[in-house]
Design goal:
- Residues 359-385 are annotated as: Disordered.
- Keywords: Cytoplasm, FAD, Flavoprotein, Monooxygenase, NADP, Nucleotide-binding, Oxidoreductase.
- With 385 residues, this protein is of the alpha/beta class.
- The protein folds into 2 domains: 3-77 and 102-174 and 285-363, FAD/NAD(P)-binding domain, CATH 3.50.50; 179-283, D-Amino Acid Oxidase, Chain A, domain 2.
- The chain is built from 12 helices and 17 strands.
- The strands form 4 sheets. Strands 5-4-13-14-15-12-16 form a 7-stranded mixed β-sheet, with helices on one face. The protein has a 5-stranded parallel β-sheet with strand order 7-2-1-11-17.
- The radius of gyration is 21 Å and the shape is globular.
Length: 385
């Protein structure tokens, strides 16, 4: 199939799918994005992302969006503080050397809005959840939607995240629970309503850890803070504890008991968060990600290589989407372009997935495993949920 005339579908309006569509449109190509959500405002998009100069920012540069990104990004958000969990003493401050921000922060919703605004009107078809992908046997595929309708395409790009409906047409891999759960909360108008805690967090991210438990908070734009309790537990820990997340008071009391003995100023994160609590078990795909090449079908981002959220996922999704689009532009045939993309993406993802799996064990050691010595700790990312 000649690439320039290919019918291209992107499933999922996340960073990887949207930047792929943006770059293709920038060069005059036609592409359609199908998104399960009913509208851009159907749900909040989560917290903030650090976008790295060599991956995510490079992808945004290829999309012609880097200047607009920098207009929204917060370089000061790159500062990270590690606190002692029992004294709240500041143990370490990690800030850009010489004031150079290599990974400034941006709210996930702002990044998505930036990408959506860059696309032609009507590119994204909202409220079109895909149920599965059916091959025709000639390199083309039919997208089947949950309403029973279907459309045929020469290339289907699965950019639909952890629980991808496209992935099963390529691979039988499914996400597995990592043993770590994040319980999220947050603070509105933190500087005016929670000034002492806002000062504790500082300009960017605050983290405190002991053994297999941690507390972290991170600034978003507009004076908001995202906060999270992080711990190792069985996936059904809250069922065993008899908790219902609709009962905020009960969840709060249980978490405060879990973190008994931590410094009171850190426990404010659990006592005073004004967004309730959200359970976020962490999943990852098996390492390395691998599949036999299938003409007319590929994956980007979490659909291809879901890994622990240590600051890599969104950057890889952007890079994947950009590199797939650039491969399509560079090769006269769709299949050659997809093969070229996968030959680079899969080994890169394998290395980073292995690294983040090790990083999660370093960040929150399993019970019985000694904590890393001070000074050897990786800078953590925030949940990208």
């Amino acid at each position: 199939m000649n690439a320039t005339s290919a019918r291209i579908a992107v499933v999922g309006a996340g960073p990887g799918g949207l930047i792929c569509a943006r770059i293709l449109q920038l060069h005059g190509w036609s592409v359609t994005v199908f998104e399960r959500e009913a509208s851009p405002a159907a749900r909040t998009q989560g917290g903030t992302l650090d976008i790295h100069s060599t991956t995510g920012q490079q992808a945004l540069r290829e999309a012609g969006l880097l200047d607009r990104f920098h207009a929204l990004a917060r370089p000061e958000g790159e500062v990270w503080r590690r606190l002692d969990p029992f004294t709240a003493e500041v143990l370490e401050v990690d800030r850009p050397a010489d004031g150079h921000a290599g990974r400034p922060e941006i709210d996930r919703g702002q990044l998505r809005g930036l990408l959506l605004d860059s696309l032609a009107t009507g590119t994204v078809r909202w409220g079109r959840p895909v149920s599965r992908v059916v091959p025709h046997g000639d390199g083309t595929h039919r997208l089947l939607f949950e309403d029973g309708t279907g459309e045929d395409f020469d290339l289907v790009v699965g950019a639909d995240g952890a629980w991808s409906r496209v992935r099963p047409a390529l691979s039988d891999a499914v996400p597995r629970y990592t043993g770590v759960t994040f319980v999220g909360t947050g603070f509105h108008d933190s500087d005016s309503r929670h000034p002492a805690f806002a000062r504790l967090v500082g300009e960017g991210t605050m983290s405190a850890r002991s053994g297999s438990r941690g507390l972290s908070a991170q600034r978003n734009s507009g004076g908001h803070l995202d906060a999270v309790a992080m711990f190792r537990a069985p996936e059904d820990w809250y069922v065993t504890a008899g908790l219902d997340f609709a009962d905020t008071a009960a969840v709060r009391a249980h978490l405060l008991e879990m973190y008994d003995g931590w410094h009171d100023s850190l426990l404010y994160l659990l006592r005073a968060g004004d967004r309730g609590f959200v359970n976020r078990p962490l999943y990852a795909l098996p390492v390395p990600p691998v599949w036999d090449h299938v003409p007319g079908l590929t994956l980007v981002g979490d659909a291809a290589h879901l890994m622990p959220p240590l600051g890599v996922g969104a950057n890889l999704a952007l890079l994947d989407g950009a590199e797939l689009a650039l491969a399509l532009l560079a090769h006269p045939e769709v299949d050659a372009a997809v093969r070229a993309y996968e030959e680079v993406m899969l080994p890169r993802a394998a290395d980073l997935a292995a690294g983040t799996a090790q990083g999660l064990n370093h960040f929150l050691p399993p019970e019985g495993q000694p904590e890393p010595v001070p000074g050897s700790r990786r800078r953590p990312g925030q949940p990208q949920a």
